Structures are given as structure tokens and as C-alpha cells.
């Protein structure tokens, strides 16, 4: 009898070992043993930047041996909240997400905290006053990105008396990048009264909406000098509208954009966009590294700022072939 029980126990132990190894041989050990599971709620698939960000997160999870549960919220906050609740139900080891908008997260983040599941913010942040609701925020400084755009325009326009009429295509209403890129840009150009933002509206970070809003801008503003677009996708949609109106993008209307995705850099090299402020989507490896540290109860910085640069038309021509996204 004893032999039979010991044989069963051996089979049982082997089975558990195989299961955990089967999920990823080089799997990152979860607190209780086995492979780490991460629940990731992504904003959507609205732009070239988002596609590259999703790929970076998925590839990095694979490399780190982390079992990634991934959901696409189609740019709806309620879908992200549902996904986070489902990850809590599934008892994942760690939750990471890019909040589509800044507000309305405290309740669900408190539920994660009460379930002892650490949360990492990536790409965009939240406006919660309670900083214990997440372990760290990994992403760009969007205010600085807006300042960089404003500084380039100030330098570019220094010999012009003005007025310099600007239209602005904002990102998704209520999102951190839209709020912060707007404020950083306004902070810099606000120093000189010759700069006039004659129209500013959300294009929701998409090409289609960017084109639609730019068409409306062109109809109601006969002499636009500059377009400031919060991302390349909206800038590319706006280029279609500008050309449709018989004007030359990059010449009749200077275009400043943010992201530096391949299609944006191509338009920059072609002279249709005038300047791009980079916003790197390649956050995957840093995210997985932070997750491992959090699960190992190691200290992590409250804020990890992404490194990124800017591109002129000449610089774009030089680097275009080597761009990763
Ligand atoms: C920025 C990111 C923004 C990109 C857009 O970190 O949240 O969302 O600039 C994307 O292209 O849609």
C-alpha cells in the first residue's frame, strides 16, 4: 500500500513540475513558485505607436518567461476596468496597464491593492492622489515633449514678426499625453504674443479623425501657418486634408508632430512634416524588469522616464532605414 501512495505522490509532484516548466522554461518564478503571470490592459490599436508598444510588451514578456494575459480596450475606460477586475479574479501576480484617460481609476486600483496584486503604470499615468495604488510609472514626460515642440517653433519663427497662426490636433480627450503635450507647448509659445492658437480640437490620436478635424480647421481658418499634432497618425491624416485643399504640407503649413513612428519619419524625410518629437513605444523590456523587481520585493523608483530625442528633416533622412518601428 505504502509503495502505491508514494508512487502517486511522485507522479503528482512530477506533474506540477512539468506544468510550471511547460509554461516557459526560463520562466520568471512567481512569489509562490511556478511562472509569473502578468495581466496587461492595453489602450487599443489606435496608432502606429500603439502597435509598436503592444509588440514590445508581448515580445519582452516572452523573453522574460512571463505568462502575459493581454487585453485590448478599444480606447474605452470601462473595458480596461473590466480587464483589471478579471485579472484580479484570475489572481495574476502583477497587473500593468496604460490608462486611456487620467481620471476614474481609484476604485479598481483599490480592489487590486486589497487583493495584494501590485500594479505598474506604463506609457500613461493616472491622476490618483493615492500614490500607494501603483508601484511605479514607466513612460515619457509628455510636458517636456510639448516644450520641445514649442522650442523648435520659437527658434524656427524667430525672424517672423507674426502673427503665427497655429492649429492644434489634440490627442484623446482626458488622456495624459493630450493634457501634457498641450500644456508644455502652450507654456513655451505663450512667452511670445505673436503665436496664436486659432483652433484646438481632439483628433483622438487616429489618422481618420486627424484628417476630419484638419478639414474643418482649413474651412474655418483661411491662413493657417502651423499645425501642432499630438501624434504622427493625426499629422498624417492632416496631410491628406492639407493636400486635398490644394496646399503644400511642410511649406504652406509647417507641421510639428510627436512619436517618430516609421510613417511619420518618412513624411518628415519627404518634407511634408517639419519636425518630430520622439516618444518611444519600446517600453516592454523595462516593464518586465520592473515587474520582476516588484515581485522580488526590491525597491523600484516611483517614476521611470523614457529616454527620447527629436528629429529634423535632415536627421530623419539619415536614420529612416534603421528605425525599429
Ligand atoms: C504616448 C502614447 C500616445 C502616442 C499615440 O505615450 O500614449 O498614444 O503618442 C498613441 O500615438 O495613440
TrEMBL record:
Matches recorded under InterPro entries: Peripla_BP_I, SBP_2_dom
Keyword set, alphabetical order: Signal
GO cellular component: cell envelope
GO MF annotation, one: carbohydrate binding
Metal-binding found in the keyword field: no
Localization of this protein: Cell envelope
Signal peptide segment: 1-22
PANTHER family the UniProt entry points to: D-ALLOSE-BINDING PERIPLASMIC PROTEIN-RELATED, GALACTOFURANOSE-BINDING PROTEIN YTFQ
Family affiliation: Belongs to the bacterial solute-binding protein 2 family.
Protein name in UniProt: ABC transporter substrate-binding protein
Lineage start: Bacteria, Bacillati, Actinomycetota, Actinomycetes, Propionibacteriales
Amino acid at each position: 500500500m505504502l509503495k502505491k501512495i508514494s508512487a502517486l505522490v511522485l507522479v503528482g509532484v512530477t506533474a506540477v513540475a512539468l506544468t510550471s516548466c511547460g509554461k516557459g522554461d526560463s520562466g520568471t518564478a512567481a512569489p509562490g513558485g511556478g511562472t509569473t503571470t502578468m495581466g496587461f490592459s492595453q489602450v487599443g490599436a489606435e496608432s502606429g505607436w500603439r502597435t509598436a508598444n503592444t509588440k514590445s510588451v508581448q515580445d519582452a514578456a516572452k523573453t522574460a518567461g512571463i505568462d502575459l494575459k493581454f487585453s485590448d480596450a478599444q480606447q474605452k475606460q470601462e473595458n480596461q476596468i473590466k480587464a483589471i477586475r478579471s485579472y484580479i479574479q484570475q489572481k495574476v501576480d502583477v497587473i500593468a496597464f496604460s490608462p486611456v484617460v487620467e481620471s476614474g481609476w481609484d476604485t479598481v486600483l483599490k480592489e487590486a491593492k486589497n487583493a495584494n496584486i501590485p500594479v505598474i503604470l506604463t506609457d500613461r499615468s493616472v491622476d490618483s492622489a493615492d500614490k500607494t495604488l501603483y508601484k511605479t510609472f514607466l513612460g515619457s514626460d509628455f510636458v517636456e515633449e510639448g516644450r520641445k515642440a514649442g522650442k523648435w517653433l520659437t527658434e524656427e519663427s524667430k525672424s517672423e514678426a507674426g502673427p503665427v497662426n497655429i492649429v492644434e490636433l489634440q490627442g484623446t480627450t482626458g488622456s495624459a499625453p493630450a493634457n501634457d503635450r498641450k500644456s508644455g507647448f502652450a507654456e513655451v509659445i505663450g512667452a511670445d504674443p505673436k503665436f496664436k492658437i486659432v483652433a484646438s480640437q481632439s483628433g483622438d490620436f487616429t489618422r481618420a479623425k486627424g484628417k476630419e478635424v484638419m478639414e474643418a480647421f482649413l474651412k474655418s481658418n483661411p491662413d493657417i501657418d502651423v499645425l501642432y499634432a499630438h501624434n504622427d497618425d493625426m499629422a498624417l491624416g492632416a496631410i491628406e486634408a492639407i493636400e486635398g485643399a490644394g496646399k503644400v504640407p511642410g511649406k504652406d503649413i509647417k507641421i510639428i508632430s510627436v512619436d517618430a513612428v516609421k510613417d511619420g519619419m518618412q513624411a518628415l524625410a519627404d518634407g511634408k512634416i517639419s519636425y518630430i518629437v520622439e516618444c518611444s513605444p519600446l517600453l516592454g523590456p523595462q516593464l518586465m524588469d520592473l515587474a520582476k523587481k516588484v515581485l522580488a520585493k526590491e525597491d523600484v523608483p516611483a517614476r521611470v522616464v523614457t529616454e527620447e530625442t527629436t528629429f529634423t528633416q535632415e536627421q530623419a533622412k539619415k536614420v529612416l532605414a534603421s528605425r525599429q518601428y
